[in-house]
Amino acid sequence: MSGAEGAGGFFANDQVPLEALRRQAFNLRWASQPDDVIPLTAADPDFAVAPVVREAIARQAAEGLFCYGPAAGLPAFREACARWSTEGRGVACGPERVLAVDGAAAGMRHICRLLLRPGDEAIVFDPVDFLFAAAVEAAGGRVRRLPVDPLSGELALDRLDSLVTPRTRLLGVCNPLNPVGRVLREPELVALGAFAERHNLAILNDEVWADIVFAPHRFVSLAAVDGAVAKRCWSVQGFSKNYGLAGLRVGCVVAPDAAGCTALAQAALTDTTMGGVATLSQIAAVAALEGAGDWLAAWLAHLQGQRDRAVAALAAMPGVLVRPPEGTYTLFPRVPHHGLGPEALVERLRQRQRLAVVPGAPRWFGPGAAGHLRLVFSTSEAILTEGLERLRRGVEELAGEGGETVGP
Ligand SMILES: Cc1ncc(COP(=O)(O)O)c(C=O)c1O
After folding, report:
1. Distance between CA atoms of residues 358 and 347, nearest Å
2. Residues with CB under 6 A from ligand 1
3. Residue 325 and residue 308: Cα distance in Å, rounded?
């Protein structure tokens, strides 16, 4: 395979292994739905991973050894992640700052466990992926929410200071922002960093979507804008969205320094064998970072086409408002609910149209998600087109019955 163009064949309509997905893709997706339901739910690709990743796993399997690994991660993994941070994110770091974690979500949980005491507060975006609140609350903390415009993705930065209390310890930053699809601009990052400095807050800096950014937008890491702010950043990186390794449960945290990494390893219980990441998963991640660049470029090109297709289809639906995501493969249109609650609307789409999407409900994204639905476009053109056609039918049917639009 040479170059992204050749790799583009990986994302053709006939490359979605539906039968296998129906057995293996859980978390609201194919294996969690009746066979005739199309899931545009959890952000997880419908395609096989890069051949180079499969080959690396097969090589290790052929060797037949699956020994305990080192507590903070395999040296090759920590080194590959440090290079990724330095070259890919513009955040110079060595392997001593990298902790292997069993998924970005686990990284978020470990960071909160390390930095928060029961009753402490963290400021998170609203709407944002539920994992922020889940990680904070798992550590006994409480979230206070910074409003984000769910269509434009603009942050209410002028509200930040009013959210601070004597218990505030942490600022959660999701960049690019799931579900809104916004890629934060440098001045916003500067403002967030200055705010954290002013109030002496640590930063849970979630960058799991940083490889999925559409031109002309450009990803800038919060940890790259200012040296002092970098010292506050606990940056979470993942392999689920970019390389499709969600089921291998692997990610990494780049700690502010080596001592922070050691403390995080203790909080994650990796210094005992109660915590830690499967070595096979780390080997797969290294193969992805070192050999799947063309595959990733082709994945991004496919996603850009999918995004444009989806935005055009959504914009043509009655009463639906949508903005093209700048990054991520999540869409967050405002959809008339005609008096139905978010869960009821989604259940109706599932029952009548055989389409599964994620409701704009507080439990998924916070109260700021009201009136919206989240859908993903990490599938084939054919499946996305059919899924959107089902959504159109559902939206039109409701508009026909409901008359007046009462939101959300
Ligand atoms: C913003 C954000 N953070 C973290 C995660 C979790 O990623 P992982 O599969 O590596 O745990 C997700 C997955 O949807 C996400 O959207």
Report:
1. 10
2. 43, 103-105, 129, 131, 174, 178, 206, 208, 238, 240, 246, 251
3. 9
